[in-house]
Amino acid sequence: MTPDRFTAFFLAIFCLNGFPLTSNELAAAEGRKLDLKADNAYKHVIEPILAGSCIGCHGADKAKGKIRLHTPEEITKSKAIAADKDGDISMVLRINLPDEDEDVMPPEGKPRLSAEQKKLIGWWIAEGASFDKNIAALKVPDDVNAILTGLLYSEPKKVVIKKAFSLPEPSGVADASAVAAIEKSGALIMQLAQDTKYLSVNAINVAKSFNDAQVKLLVPVKGNLTWLDVSRSGITDAAASDISQLAMLTKLHLENTAVTDNTLQQLGKLSKLEYLNLYGTKVSDAGLEHLKGLKNLKKLYVWQTGVTEAGVNKLKESIPGLYVNMGWKAPEEKPPEPKK
Ligand code: HEC
User: Fold this and answer.
1) Given phi > 0 = left and psi -120 to 50 = alpha, else beta, which region is 208?
2) Of 199, 253, 196, which Cα lies nearest the Cα of 226?
3) Does 3.80.10.10 match the CATH number of domain 176-325?
4) Whether the CB of 54 sits within 6 Å of ligand 1
5) Does the CB atom of residue 67 touch ligand 1 within 6 A?
6) Domain locations in the chain as residue ranges
7) Residue 199 confidence (pLDDT) above 50
8) Is the beta carbon of 103 within 6 A of some atom in ligand 1?
9) pTM of this prediction?
């Protein structure tokens, strides 16, 4: 490929998380030539690749595979650039797998890294994965030099994360030892977005071992916890009184658990709740009666439960604008992990 063609190709791949560029955006994204003397290897070469292809899933708002790659600190913490006991470096390994390999990064369906991008990442890591060295301070083999010479730099687009809700910010951050205890349970606890002290907890990876006892671990962070996913976990109605203390919850996943109307009786206290998923539980119309006071509730999922249309209509009278999914359409895709 000629340098120009390569540049355009490269830009088209890395600029916008895989969204096609409009001509305006392309113009704005064209950037400048790299300065091989003064530019920094991480900031000007590697960060734009990660920003374009990885941080949508491994960034401030998501930590797929429990790793984030959007800052030097997080990259280091992720161990993605550290050699394992066999000397393998997971980032290098994953990006170089064949397209059809199920472990390839970015995963299936997302645009692959180009051969040049793979080469640059491999080079940077082989050269010590430094976050502060300039390109000029590293050994630059001819083939890498050829790529760098043709490369344009433009500042990666900042991923804008808007708060998904209008809650006032919590007065403080969650207690560190309480957070550590939740982490120890195996549940994923994360800051909901960059600009908030709110947290999300997701127990999906440890659903089998997460039950009523583990729910108790959440109570000490109740001032910060606003999204909770305990779907498919072992929780029962015995967890209801603890869950009902999580007063800042806006989103709650209880689908496919053993909870019944007895839990709903307690959930009536969660006045901030906007999203409630009860799909595949034993709840019924009688339980919905207890939700009438949830004036902020916008979405309710009661597919494969005992709830009837009559019960739903009654609830809708109390909560105007409520969307209820009873499964006559395919249930809406489960919202992705903490985003927004
Ligand atoms: C569409 C979402 C998505 C994108 C984009 C993505 N990843 Fe991943 N990544 C995942 C998921 C999900 C996992 C966990 C499952 C697995 O290990 O395959 C993961 C796991 C990983 C792991 C292993 C983590 C560990 O230690 O277990 C590494 C390393 C990684 N990704 C690197 C990258 C890099 C580098 C990029 C960009 C070139 C990238 N990923 C892009 C979703 C994504």
Assistant:
1) alpha
2) 199
3) yes
4) yes
5) yes
6) 3-153, 176-325
7) yes
8) yes
9) 0.51
